[in-house]
Amino acid sequence: MASSSIDEMVRWGAANGVSFDPKKTEVMHFSRSKLRTTPAVRHGDVEKHPEAALRWLGIWLDSRLSFRIHVEKWAAKAKAVAYHLRGLTNTIHGPLSSAVRSAVRACVEPVLLHGSEAWYPGKARPRWTQPMKDLPSGNQHLLQRMSKAMNQAMRAILPVWKTTPTTILHRESGIPPIDQLLDARRLRFSARLKSLGESHPLASRTHPPRQHTYHDLIKRRYQMQTENGFRTRLRRTDELLAPCARPKLVQRRFQQEETVPLQAASKEKTASAFLRWLQSLDPLTLVVYSDGSLSSEGAASYGFTIHQNSIPIADGSGRLGPAEVFDAEATGALEGLKAALNLRESVTRNIIICLDNLAAATCLRGTPSDSSQDVFLEFQALATSHGAIQVRWVPGHSNIPGNEQADKLAKAASSFPDPEGALPTLAYLRRIARQKPKEAFKTWWSTSAPEQYKRLNLKATINCPPELSLPRASLHHLLAARSLHGDFAAYHERFDHDDARLVCSCGRRKAPDHIFYCRKVPPRHRMRLAPSPNAAVDLAIGKDFTKFIDLSKNSAFFGNICPRY
Fold first, then answer.
1. Is residue 60 part of a domain?
2. 239 and 331 share a domain?
3. What's the pLDDT tens digit per position in 271-281?
4. Are residues 234 and 118 part of one domain?
C-alpha cells in the first residue's frame, strides 16, 4: 500500500513538474507494540528499509514514539557544550559565574529542551483504555538523562567540589530541576496556544469534544463517533491555563499622516510641556484622563475623568476580572471615550485621550495587542467614526491634576466586587505562566533544602543570584562554607583524605565558621558577632554574604592564614 502511494506521488510529480529524490525518502512504521516485521517500501527502483529513527523539523521520531532517541541526541549536544564550558572554569580561575550562567541559559538549556513541547506529556498522562483516569507518564529515564547534562552545566557555573549535592547546585545557580524546566516550557506553550486565532489548526485541535448524538434506531456499538474524546498532549497543555478570548489575526496599522511621538523627552520635561500645552487648548475641548491600577491582592481596575477647560465634568471607574494594568489602561481609555461621546456637546468637540501607560497608548494609536484586542479595536472604531480624537501620553505621578484624579478613581475601584463570568486576559495568563515556575521552584527548595541551608534562611530564585557576580575564588569559599563541602577537617575525615591538612596555622581544626574565630585574624578586620555568634555567622554566610567576602579578602585568610596546603 505504501509503495503504491509512492508510485501515485511520483506520477503526480511528473505531471506537475516536481521530482522526488529517492535519497531523501525515509520509511518508518509506527506501532504501540514492538514490530515483528518491518517491510521495506519501494521508491522507483530503490528499496527503502525502515530506519531506527527519522528527523522531522528537529524532532527525532522512533517507531513507538517514545522519543528516547530524540532525548539522547539533544542531551548529547547539550552535554558537549556543558563540558566545553566546564573546561574553561575551575574553583579559582575562569570567567565570572554570572557570565557562565548566561551562556548555559542561552546555549545549553535551549538545546536540551528542544522540542519538549511536542514530546513531554507532563508528570501524568491519561490511560488509553480509560481516558478519564491518569497514570504516571513513565519518562523518568528520559529526565535522568537530561539531568546529567544539566548537572554538568551547573558545575561549570559554580566553583564547587564534585561532592557538592545536586540540590545545592540548583539553588546556587538559580536553575530549577529538569522537570520544572519542562513544566515551565509547557506553560509557555499553553500561553502561546491562547494567543492563536480560532482558525489556527492548533487552536481547533484544543477544543474539547462535543457531546455525541446517538440514534435510537441504531445500536450504539455500530455508531461511529465523529470526534476523538481522548485528551491529547496538545489538549492537556492547553488546559494548563484558563480559557480566554482568542485574538484575531489583524493587519498592522500604520498612520496615513505623520503623528507626534508619544514621548520625545524625559518625564519631567514632558510633564511641564504637557501643562503648557493644556493652557493653549480651546476651552471647549474635552480632555479624558484615564488610568489603570493593580492592587496588592491582584484586583485590576480603571478610572477616568473628563475635563473641559481644566474643570472636571464627568468621571467613572470599574473593576475588571483577572487582568493586568495594561488591560485596565486600555479599558479605562475606552470607557472614558464612550462617556465623552455620550455628552451632548461631544459631536462638534475635539476629544483628547490622555493616559500614562506608553504601551497602551501605542496600541490605541497603532496595531492592537493580542491582549484586550477587542477593547483596542472598539476604541479605534469609535475614534474613526468621530474623527476628531487624539491620544497623548502623560507622565504618571507628575502632579498633573487630571491624571492624579484618574489614578485615585482607579485605586478606589479595586474594592468593587469582582465581575461574574469575566474571562482572564491574555496578559494575565502570560504572567501566570511566568509566575508558576517561580513559585514551584521556591516550594521545591523549601522542602528539599539540606539542613545546613535551612538555618541560613536562603530563598530560591530563577533569576541570577547576586553571589554569582563574585570572583570565582571568593565564591568558592562562600559556597564551601554554606554546603560544608570544602577544605574542612570534618570533610577530609569523612572521605578519608589522608594527605589533607586538617588544621589552620593557628593550631585549630579547619571549619566553615573558623574564619570568624581565628586568633590570627587581625582585630581591625574581625566581625562583631552580635546579637548571638551563631545568628551573626549564619547571616554573614547567608543573606549578608558581603561580610564574609570582605573579612576573607581584607585579612587574606585563605591565602596566608589558613591555606589549603
1. no
2. no
3. 888 899 898 89
4. yes
